[in-house]
Amino acid sequence: MLDKIKSSFEKFPERKVFVIDGVSFTYQIFAEITSKIRSILEQQPCATEQLIGVIESNDIETYCSIYACLFAGKTFVPLNPENPLDRNLDILKQTEIKTILSAQSSDKISVLSNAPGVKVVYAKTLPGTGINLEPSNISESTNAYILFTSGSTGVPKGVPLTRKNLFSFIEAFFALGYQIDETDKFLQMFDLTFDLSLMCYIAPLCIGACVYPVPFEGIKYTHIYNIMEEEEITFALMVPSILAYLRPYFEEIHFEKVKYSLFCGEALYEDISREWQRCVPNALIQNVYGPTEATIFCLTYDLSKEQKKIKSINGIVCIGKPMLNMDAIVVDENNKRLLKNEKGELCLTGSQLTTGYWKNPQKNKEAFFTLFMDGGVKTFYRTGDIAFMDDEGDFMFSGRIDNQVKIQGFRVELSEIEHYAREFAKHSQVVAIAHTNKIGNQQVHLFIEDYSGNINELENYLKVKLPQYMVPASISTIKLFPLNVNGKVDRKAIAKILQEAQVSN
Questions:
Q1: CA-to-CA distance for 467 and 456, rounded, in angstroms?
Q2: Maximum distance among all alpha carbons in the chain?
Q3: pTM of the model
Q4: Residue 396 belongs to a domain with what CATH number?
Q5: 48 falls within a domain
Q6: Across all residues in the chain, what is the average pLDDT?
Q7: Domain range for residue 416?
Q8: 211 with 186: CB under 8 angstroms?
Q9: 354 plus 409 within the same structural domain
Q10: pLDDT tens digit string along 396-407?
């Protein structure tokens, strides 16, 4: 992968590699900035540090910092300065990061630099050096990056992905047969702490193409609309919830230049994908699937224009078949492999699969298991998704079996929201319910039993503790929570209360 990227720098020095907020950067400029950041990483004390923090911002230096880590053989850990301070400090504590790369200076970043033993290196002010894009001679088993996802106890879970995992994804991505080259233009709409972003800013550089990140400020779907129209984007990976925001404008949208329109991170619904096909008349629409633990995505399903029928269940589009070097099975609660058309938990194995959570043996024990298959023992990851394989070998997604949901494409543990609500309210009876709002997107409503405290103060506390996408859209109280026959809080009954309230409104 890195050899391909190095070749792009050598073959296309004057071509655009990134266009950020209307400013263009060439491969030559990108190589120069990446090299000077790399030189710092290879000097003491960074030379002996494996994990490097990278502060997210919409600057060329941020992307160069990530590439500097990859070429230097370091493990990068993206940090969003807009996330709660406690969350970022917890990540720094878990990883013991000593050096953070940042394109900008701000009060939020300065606070992180005050963490014990941590220093911030500002990439914009580094002196120039010669270009050095020779990949470091380092084992493929070394972690390329670590992403942190929601944790049920309020502690983020680290998901380390090795260089082999990442290289395997890139190999499988190009094996899908996309007809793309250095003239293509890729949309990048994701937070850099979200693993889908990696496809958007790594795959294009393997072929000399250009990346168009969406600005952080303002309304995201408006930026996406404008960039896709004005820049004539040809390859776009998005979360399905964006379509709900764009839907009122579908009659005006006609993106003729889009060749590939991919969706991942949430359930893709058949009705809206049919409507979207008219907006991208020359595009292949793909529904792709995969958790962070399996490196970006690992199953794909094509929605070709010629199809009279799109495979779906309960209106949710099929998630397809495994990509190169990956496999998927459906098992029951005893890890017994199920037959076709039998519903169970979707489990994944293959070269894109993480070796396990960061310093979390208990979670590893829960999430991974081994099974004898195809003449050998393989490690499988439990996705927590209910699915079945149909007669043609395609997998159909049927929902979740645990307390996780997808909000704005991010995987969210509802129990984490409940954890902080209980912490503030000093109250044990708290239930977070995910529901679909009027425009078809998922959001969270928080219920508290017999609570007389200040709801606004609770909401402000949650904003301090949780990323924006996890903060409940609404909060209400119930005098007495309903219980099921086992004496447990009846979440289904509470969800029905919310549903009835929405109907009455």
A1: 17
A2: 71
A3: 0.86
A4: 2.30.38.10
A5: no
A6: 92
A7: 404-504
A8: yes
A9: no
A10: 998 888 767 888
